[in-house]
Design goal:
three-stranded antiparallel beta sheet, about 45% helix, about 270 residues, 7 strands
């Protein structure tokens, strides 16, 4: 009888030691067929032994944290066309498991945030809410959970019906919205007046610039014409003194390319 108790005690101690030494692993279930890896499932499991990964090459498997940092890296060789069960050491901050092929291209991105245990790290993570972790997520925060607590804070995840604070502040929000709309309208009207004045000034300036350019063009044309007439006047006068008739002089000037108007104007000034 006494020996049976001793045996039972030893068995109990062995079980307790195994439980104490149990480790958590992400258990990734995949199929490998002719170089292609397909995902079946992933789970979290406690086992009473340590799984050692000794491969230095092969498929790279990474556990990545919520802030995109690598927290676990292992290599795993897959060559035979069969099903593989891969044990990845658990980390409470893991957000996803990434798998890379032999060409270092990512072929899997598996969400494991539901297995994370980050409550108490002073950051309301995507998988946390006021319901699951009051240490990190405050009441009324955007956490996809409506707490409906009457605390003077309108929960952004609640409706007016589900959070009394939202109902109490609905009128205030409407009044604020109306006032803001009115202010925007006044600012818009105030801004439109200077804009109209600017358009008016723009067109006036454009017309004035065009007029100035036309006047400058006419002035230059007139000055050039007077210079030609003055030159023709001198030429005609000199040739009349030499004994040429006015008609002979005109014929020469026409052959040289001078028009009738320029020649006649020069003749009239003599």
């Amino acid at each position: 009888m006494k020996s049976n108790k001793i045996v039972a005690y030893i068995i109990l101690m062995v079980l307790l030691v195994n439980i104490a030494n149990a480790e958590k692993y992400f258990v990734l279930d995949v199929n490998y067929i002719i170089g292609s890896v397909t995902f079946n499932s992933i789970s979290l499991r406690e086992i009473d032994r340590t799984v050692k990964h000794t491969d230095n090459s092969g498929f790279l498997i990474k556990a990545v944290s919520f802030d995109n940092k690598d927290i676990q890296r292992i290599f795993y060789n897959m060559s035979d066309n069969k099903n593989y069960i891969i044990y990845i050491p658990y980390n409470e901050n893991a957000a996803r498991i990434e798998v890379y092929n032999l060409k270092n291209s990512k072929i899997m991105d598996i969400d494991v945030s539901s297995y994370a245990d980050t409550c108490g790290n002073k950051a309301c993570e995507e998988h946390e809410s006021y319901e699951s972790c009051t240490k990190d997520c405050s009441s009324g925060s955007r956490d996809d959970f409506c707490d409906g607590i009457s605390d003077g804070i309108c929960d952004h995840d609640c409706s007016i019906k589900t959070d009394v604070d939202c109902g109490e502040k609905a009128d205030e929000l409407n009044q604020t919205s109306t006032a803001t709309t009115r202010q925007k309208q006044e600012v818009r009207e105030f801004a439109e007046e200077p804009e109209e004045k600017l358009n008016y000034l723009f067109w006036i300036s454009a017309v004035l610039i065009i007029i100035i350019f036309v006047l400058i063009f006419l002035f230059i044309k007139k000055k050039k014409e007077n210079q030609i007439v003055s030159s023709l006047k001198q030429y005609i006068s000199e040739n009349i003194r030499k004994g040429f008739t006015l008609q002979q002089i005109k014929d020469v000037l026409h052959r040289e390319g001078y028009n009738e108007k320029e020649v006649d104007k020069a003749v009239k000034t003599i």
